[in-house]
Structure formats: structure tokens, C-alpha cells
Design brief:
Elements (H helix, E strand, L loop, with lengths): L1 H11 L4 H8 L8 H18 L2 H11 L5 H14 L4 H15 L5 H21 L3 H14 L5 H5 L5
Protein name: PDCD4 protein
Keywords: Cytoplasm, Nucleus, Repeat
Subcellular location: Cytoplasm
Length: 159
């Protein structure tokens, strides 16, 4: 009875999802999508600041959502398109390469992430006029480093 009362109180708290994660040990698949997207964005931003691939890899593993790694790929590519300069491009390609080589991001997840960017490129290019050329360059770089397949490279929308 005490445990049920405690659970009722905890569930009524309108705080962050992390509170329940800490108390109940909710796994990655039980977290709201918005929370996971926010976590992946934060992970990528921290990576761009620190440049620590191993830390980014550790954080991604800690999220425990291998079925959702396409979101990381999608967010990484969009971040490159919206960013400026060569630094973020090289860093994201390096991160994707490591995640690909370790098997943390599977072929299917990599394809789904890039396909989502391809589908939304029209909307993205409204905010970033050079999105098509940036994406073509990024896709070519990823292909050269063995991160994506020839079929995925060829599927890249051209202007």
C-alpha cells in the first residue's frame, strides 16, 4: 500500500521526465519522442563543442534507443546544413563514420536518417538556400568515407 501511495504521488508530479526515469528506471523506449529528440540535439551540440567522439558514442548508447538512431543521423545532417563553415561538416562526418564502424548506427538507420533529410529538403532549403549544394557535398563526403551506400548517394536530390 505504501508503494502504491508513493507511486501515485510521483505520477502526479508535473516535473521533468527525468524524475520518473531516476525513480522507476524507465528505459529509452519508454521516453517521449520530444525528449529523445532534445537529448540527441544536445548530444550533437556538445560533440561540436568538445570534439569528443567517445563521449558522444557513450551518450548515444546511454539513451538506449537503437531503433531511433535514424533521428541522430537526421539531426546531424540538418545541423550541418544549417551550420556554417567546414568544421561542423568534418566533425559530423567523423562522428557518423565512428558510429557506423562500431555498429551503433546500422545501415537501415543511416538510410532512414538520410532519406528523411531528402524528403524534407524542400522545406529546409526555404531556410537555407544553399541546402541542395551543401547536402550534395556532404553526401559525397560520406560516400567517399564509406559511411553510406552508392544507392543512397544516388538517391540524393539534385537541383
Amino acid at each position: 500500500r505504501a508503494a502504491l501511495d508513493r507511486a501515485a504521488v510521483l505520477l502526479r508530479i508535473k516535473r521533468d521526465v527525468n524524475r520518473l526515469d531516476n525513480v522507476w528506471g524507465v528505459g529509452g523506449g519508454q521516453r517521449p519522442v520530444k525528449h529523445l529528440v532534445k537529448e540527441m540535439n544536445l548530444l550533437l551540440r556538445e560533440y561540436l563543442l568538445s570534439g569528443e567522439v567517445s563521449e558522444a558514442e557513450h551518450c548515444l548508447r546511454e539513451l538506449e534507443v537503437p531503433h531511433f538512431h535514424h533521428e541522430l543521423v537526421y539531426e546531424a545532417v540538418v545541423m550541418v546544413l544549417e551550420g556554417s563553415g567546414e568544421g561542423p561538416v568534418d566533425m559530423m562526418v567523423t562522428l557518423l563514420k565512428v558510429l557506423w564502424e562500431t555498429g551503433l548506427v546500422t545501415l537501415d538507420q543511416m538510410n532512414r536518417g538520410f532519406q528523411r533529410v531528402y524528403e524534407e529538403l524542400g522545406d529546409i532549403s526555404l531556410d537555407v538556400p544553399l541546402a541542395h549544394s551543401l547536402l550534395e557535398r556532404l553526401v559525397e563526403l560520406c560516400f567517399d568515407r564509406g559511411i553510406i551506400t552508392k544507392a543512397l548517394r544516388d538517391a540524393c536530390p539534385a537541383r
